[in-house]
UniProtKB/TrEMBL annotation:
GO molecular function, one term: microtubule binding
Protein's UniProt name: Uncharacterized protein
GO process terms (BP): mitotic spindle midzone assembly
PANTHER family: FASCETTO-RELATED, PROTEIN REGULATOR OF CYTOKINESIS 1 PRC1-RELATED
Pfam families reported in the protein's UniProt record: MAP65_ASE1 (PF03999)
Coiled coil: none
Residue spans of biased composition, Polar residues class: 122-135
Superkingdom to which the source organism belongs: Eukaryota
Biased composition annotated in UniProt, kind: Basic and acidic residues: 107-117
Length: 173
């Protein structure tokens, strides 16, 4: 009984080998694309020795092209399977098209989650509050002890005295 089951599975695999091989290749390319996207979002990549934006763009285009090609091939083979056997080819329990859509949706949700996590972490870092900044500005704008301005004498005349020179009158114009 087990031998018959094994023989049926082997026959099923041999009959649909191209579909399984292309699906496995798509999984590998998808993992490579996700890793590439992770590295491409690293801001320090510009500082790495030997970094090339042109090379990065070429690799991105190549990965996107190969993913699209493999996806189209798997979808076509899935349609052929459906026509031949009368039922859908399922990947992880869902039809092929839904599988690809789910994978891409999960990936975009992961990216959004990571983005939100980074924003939350950035928002919780110790930053200077508005009150602290205002206090600091007031402290910085305080007069130097050795220099004092006084408004003595006629209107429009300012007396300045410093430790190094005697008070003199400066007229505003």
């Amino acid at each position: 009984e087990h031998e018959k089951e094994l023989e049926d599975i082997n026959l099923y695999y041999v009959h649909n080998e191209q579909l399984f091989v292309n699906l496995a290749n798509w999984h590998e390319a998808w993992a490579e694309y996700r890793e590439f996207q992770r590295q491409a979002s690293d801001p320090d990549r510009f500082k790495r020795r030997g970094y090339s934006a042109v090379q990065e763009e070429k690799q991105r285009k190549h990965l996107e092209f190969s993913l699209k090609k493999l996806q189209d091939t798997v979808q076509q083979l899935g349609k052929d399977y459906e026509q031949e056997f009368g039922h859908l080819f399922l990947v992880e329990g869902v039809p092929v098209q839904d599988f690809f859509n789910n994978e891409k949706e999960n990936y975009s949700q992961e990216k959004e989650l990571e983005k939100a996590r980074k924003q939350l972490a950035r928002g919780q870092t110790p930053t200077m509050s508005h009150a602290q900044a205002t206090t600091k500005r007031l402290e910085m704008s305080a007069k130097t002890p050795g220099r004092q301005q006084t408004n003595l004498g006629k209107e429009g005349e300012i007396k300045i005295s410093t430790p190094f020179r005697p008070a003199s009158g400066i007229h505003k114009r």
